[in-house]
Amino acid sequence: MRKLNPHDLDRLVRSNRRLKLSLLITLAAIVLVAVVLIKNDIDARLGAGVGVLIGLLLLMPQRRLLAELGLTGAEAKEILAAHREQLSGVADLPPQERARREGVKATVYILLGLALLAVLAVSAVYFFGHAFETVEEDAPSDPWLGISFFAGFISLCAGPALLWQGSQHRAEAQMWQQRG
Question: Is the pLDDT of residue 36 over 70?
């Protein structure tokens, strides 16, 4: 791993922080615009292209800095992760303690992922059991149908990601156990 001088490391950390902040603001703006478009029945076929363009515009300053520093994206991530470990004090821990911490993280991620997959199963059963039923015109809408859809969608997206994160932390815990 390359070492950066303190000035360049500070520039990289600030650029990364600005990138994350602009990503959050942009995502909030995109959700707001999508809600307004849907509410007003406006066709939004150009959404994917606009999203890619926004993503490229957000990444331009970060890519320029990486090129200026002569780093790849993977090297920058590694440098930032090492910097975070130094600031938090994790880098100074013995290997057995780091293995224990990673094992706890792995367990938490796996349990959360399994819980979300259970939520997915329950919401899918409810949603598909009620989605195709005929409803009378004046009947009140079923709020649980919408809740089950969104809960299922969020669980479908987040559950496997959490399980993957758990497996990554488990592998890292095993690596630290072997070092210790």
Answer: yes
